[in-house]
Amino acid sequence: MRVFVRKMSQIIPDLPEGPLDFYRKKASFDWKKLKVFLDTEEIVKYQNDVHKELQKLSIFKPNIHEGTFDDFRHKSTMQYLHYGDIDLLKMENQFEDLKRPYAALRTMFQLTPSSQIKHSVGDNLFTGVIRTMGTERHQHYADDSADAKIFGCFCLTEIGHGTNTKGMRTTATYDKKKKCFVFHSPDFAAAKCWAGGLGQVATHAVVFAQLVIDGTQYGLHTFLIPIRNPEDMVPFSGVTVGDMGEKIGLNGLDNGFLMFDNYEVSRECLLNKIADVTEEGEYVTPFRDPKKRHGASLGPLSGGRVNIAGVCEAFGSKALTIALRYAGVRKQFGPGDEEVPILEYQTHQHRLIPYLAATYVLKNFNTFFVEKFFQMQLDSIFGNNKNIGPDLGIEIHAISSGSKPLAGWLMMAAIQQCRETCGGHGYLKASGIGDIRNDCDANLTYEGENHVLIQQTSNWLLKFWPQILKREKIATPLESANFLSNGLDILNSKFSCRAEEELRRPENIMSMVQWLVVYLLKETHAKLENFPKDETSQFWAKNNIQVYYAKDLAVAFIEHYFLKKMLETINQSPDGNIKHVLERIFSLYGLWSLQKHTTVFYKGGYASGPNITDFIQNQVLKLCSELKDDAISLVDVIAPPDFILNSVLGHSNGEVYKNLQSAIFRSPHAMSRPSWWQDIVNWKYKKSKL
């Protein structure tokens, strides 16, 4: 036992003693064991090594006073460049263990989100598109980007079009005489926009444009275009490029706009793996169906959606660490003379602990899903196509189109609760929560507006209903929809829990969620069938079944998959205490999620009488209370180190008031008179002299 304790201390440093010990000593489990169980010992060591490397570099030293807007941009860009010099963060090292990419993503987004997006877009997405969509003639650009000889960005969205990619209006017209493409933006609405890195830094851009040959449009294609001279960063003639301006958050990232004025680029700029144009102007593609070619050209976007769910969790974990540690120290009121921590109050528990459970479930899902996605990418790059097949990519797209929205909605709501539960102190910039909230906000709209994106999930699910009616076996590569094979039997089941304690059992929660998914699938399909079958009617039908039906179906399906993966992890736990606390987390997230669907259970005949509503409400509150003493140790498991957390309210030492005093007293100009003091002294006298 002593050897184990010593080994654990070497892997995971002890936390400082302080006010939070009151709750840490109450925990029902060993937080270090839980961290190693969830992350693995290798990943914990990897994270520690990354943290040490980052702390060595002064450029990553946190500072809530960033200086001017330009100072922030400069620092963010230099951080991005330094990321490329850290061996542990290079993709070849991350791919040694496919759990590393998610661990690295969490660390970098929690530390410097603006520079990490620049890194993700400039290094990962830009080079990834070149390697997967280009051919041999393009690969040196990916190498140059990795060596920081050029800087890349990804340009799909336009001022006038975002989610509707087929409506993009930037054109690439092939000139047979000059054997080049001529790029043109007909007006400002056709300008490429919001591309990270485009505003000030990018020298090259992956641009999606409508291909035109001899007056015929061939749809959206992908091009690699030089836009600035890498030697002096000056835009080329025919290119208008600039910055979008200050944003709500992520202001270290230079989001930009891009317009072309009959800008000529060589024929080889077309990324030609899925389509090409010969010198003579002949269009060549292996795809007979233009829709499939269009879908293949947008394939790289799935990676962004997979990662965004992880980014949301990283932000949510950071905010919940701050709010729950604060709740464990902050004392207000009490039954007697002594005040009690606000974490003791039921209202406070109900506001935060369900989101803590959601964060655990989401982190567990992301650990699995990001690993699966990168494995698929590697199999594709190295030609191991027998391991992937088309169905895997389709399923990953369907899941990511639902997990990205649900993760964003959950974590933004969690962060707002964290802000409010910290009271006035949570409004301080030094709390860190405001920056977390503002930076996370973008996840709700980039890489697909959530309410539109999630329709991809429900569209995929609707295709299974005819198979359910025929009792056909449904087997998907990631097993997310396999339970639908028993859809008719599930639909005939009824709520059978006679006591509250039965309700929290994992098997009963899974049964309820499965019934919910199948019922919503049946109802959504029936709603769709009520519309005429002509193309115009079907267009409006898909849009008019979203509220109450298709969207709820997609959300319930993703919630089921989150719970399925969580239950698989719980069943692997060799430690009884860890298994017990994870089961409570599972049950709380499951019942809390089901609570918003109770009307559906009555409407569909699954339940009658008050039991299901009363049972869920009572168990949610009871589970919050049971997890209250574990909450601080649970956030210790998922918390970043203090230099990354960078919060006076959430420091691991729990010394909220000492940290707060230090931050306030060290704040520039906190106790000095303003530089404009003379303007207000004797104001009325001065005004009379005017």
TrEMBL record:
One of its GO terms (molecular function) is fatty acid binding. The keyword Lipid metabolism applies. Keywords: FAD, Fatty acid metabolism, Flavoprotein, Lipid metabolism, Oxidoreductase, Peroxisome. The keyword Lipid metabolism applies. Residues 153-262 form the Acyl-CoA oxidase/dehydrogenase middle domain. One of its GO terms (cellular component) is peroxisome. One of its GO terms (biological process) is lipid homeostasis. Residues 301-462 form the Acyl-CoA oxidase C-alpha1 domain. Pathway: Lipid metabolism. The active site is at 447 (proton acceptor). Its cofactor is FAD. FAD binds at residues 157, 196. InterPro entries: ACOX_C_alpha1, Acyl-CoA_Oxase/DH_mid-dom, Acyl-CoA_Oxase/DH_mid-dom_sf, Acyl-CoA_oxidase, Acyl-CoA_oxidase_C, AcylCo_DH-like_C, AcylCoA_DH/oxidase_NM_dom_sf. Residues 506-681 form the Acyl-CoA oxidase C-terminal domain. It is found in: Peroxisome. Belongs to the acyl-CoA oxidase family. This is Acyl-coenzyme A oxidase. It comes from Brassicogethes aeneus.
